[in-house]
Amino acid sequence: MCIRDRVSTQSTGFQTQQDGSMSAAENDGTLALRATINEALASFSDQTALFCAERLYAETRAAEDLRLLCTCYMRMGQEARAYRLLKLHRNASTPTHPQNLFLLAKVCFQLKHFDEAEAVLTGAPRSAQRAEFDAGRAELPNGSYGLELLGEICRRTGRSGKAVEYFTQAVQLNPAHWSAFQALCDLGGGASAEAMSAMPSIQGAVQRLHADATPDVSRGLFADSPAGSLLFTPGSGYAPSPAHSTPFNEGPRVPPPVVPRARPSRGSDHVSTRGSSLFSETRQTRSRTAAGSDWFRTLSRAYAMLSQYMLPNVLEEVDSLEAQHANTPWCLALQGRAHFEMTNYKLAAKSFKAALALDPLCTEAIDVYSTTLWQLKLELDLSQLAQEVIQDNRRCPQAWCVLGNCFSLQQDHDSAIKFFDRAVQLDPYYSTAYTLCGHEQAANEEHDKSLSYYRNAIRHDERNYKAWFGLGTVYQRQEKHEAAELHFLHAIEIHPGSSVLHCWLGIVRDEAHAYLSLIHISEPTRLLSISYAVFCLKKKKKLLHTYYLPLLPSFFKILFLSILYLYILLHLFVTH
What we know:
Layout: H1 3-42, H2 46-60, H3 63-75, H4 79-91, H5 98-110, H6 114-122, H7 129-134, H8 143-156, H9 160-173, H10 178-186, H11 193-198, H12 202-209, H13 282-286, H14 295-307, H15 311-319, H16 323-326, H17 329-341, H18 345-358, H19 363-376, H20 379-391, H21 397-409, H22 413-426, H23 431-443, H24 447-460, H25 465-477, H26 481-494, H27 499-511, H28 517-521, H29 529-548, H30 554-575
């Protein structure tokens, strides 16, 4: 070999060694930059994370770094920028990463592009091709979370039946997916005996989630598990495994029932769960006591029973929890809602007050608590609650409902309507706000407007029995007795144990001369038939003095009452 060849070989070897060292240095720099972004996001320094994410994506052009950059945009409320960037990447010739497809669908959902979000998830436009996907043509990105998103899309577009199917499949695929289970219960599909008996403990749910997961030492995460990774953490080429993706041609996979174990008393010692979370590692989960791992199943049953208005059972389930779970704002609010639906307003107020003492802005408690105080006519307490929740929580729709209830109790219906409308502006899908606004419009005798609000409430929540009841009361005032009876029956179908609904149904049937009021209201339970009848008679007296007598001149009022009393005396004389 000549000297020139030796020099060339040595030069080539040096160049190869230099390129390798540069590649290693570049890789180390990339990893360091990703760690900086994750640290900034965890520390809520979104601007730092965004700046570094833009630099990272400029260097690598990798799909996972694009997802990290778009996550930063979403954290800063710039969903439109994330949408445009993901669209550009999807329109390119390179195949789109499954996690980026899910992120694009999520952004479309937040921007209310529901058709596009569904097309991104399913890979087919809304047409005849969509039936192929439903029949099992393809798999959904991001497993149970993709199914949940598809269920939410169907829910927002008025397809409750399909939403129930997708939420059910999401829970079957990931038993620890609480938000999907909660949505399923809200739609009335999560409280069957079979579903509740098959609900696993948190230990079994997490073990099933991490059955196929392998820890990624370089990141310290379960990189391939959707449950073990954070939204802002880039994955490592995640593709849905058979355990985390959902072919629609499979039958339902219900997890096996878990036999409940013995539970120690509330005063007994228990293993501390500080630092653990719903998606902790399996090793941490195994260190819990048998009773400590059973709370997930108990709370699942309690929420499912509440959605079906099995209210005494809800209280029993909450009471069976250990103290560290029972004395939390969420559980206390759940207990308060059960008491509220049973019209035990004093007990409900006590539970809600305990929940707000632990979390003054607990969204699960404040709106129902304000309605409870309205029912108890506690004007001072309601005013104090309104001041507390609205002061630092002006973007919360529930807080504006509290303020609306406060003015409603003061008979200032116009101001109450403004505050309820503000709640609707913050959350256009907040069914309770529409219902309360309908009540205020009915109090102002704006029947057409109240009907519109009630219908909007039902459009966003078909199981809102208060809105069905509101429609019935409006039709009853308009003397449309058949329509009123129909809507009362629909409300009773949702909440069959409500004595108030049964009494109003008896009243409207009595006014329609059906003569079935006392017969019907004794159907739910014989023991309460007398109280139902007394309620009906009191309601008739209230209607008489509230709606009919004020319309008559004083002379005719005296004449009308005289004839009524003579009729009563004659009736007593004949019967005796």
